[in-house]
Design brief:
Blueprint: E1 2-6, H1 11-22, E2 32-36
Parallel strand pairs: 1-2
Bound molecules: nicotinamide-adenine-dinucleotide (NAD).
């Protein structure tokens, strides 16, 4: 599935992205995930490093 996550570099968004790609949410981990994030003070690309 192709999934767009807004705010994906933030606290909750990055946890969601890691869960999707790691298969913790549906067991597959077979997704293409695109993050759209304004990178405000609370956005941090390091959250997505894993
Ligand atoms: N260590 C912790 O316990 C911790 C850390 C961070 C946040 N929190 C808490 O988690 C709760 C919410 O976290 P969250 O992840 O919902 O919020 P967040 O503020 O952590 O992340 C929001 C994300 O959305 C992005 N964003 C903001 N406006 C945007 C726009 N117009 N377009 C695209 N992207 C945009 C920001 O850059 C950021 O990456 C809060 O209560 C916060 O205090 C806890």
């Amino acid at each position: 599935m192709r999934i767009l996550v807004t705010g994906g570099a933030g606290f909750i968004g990055s946890e969601y992205v890691r869960g999707l790609l790691g298969g913790q949410l549906d067991g597959s981990g077979e997704h293409t995930v695109t993050v759209y994030d304004k990178l405000t003070y609370s956005g941090n690309l390091a959250n997505l490093a894993p």
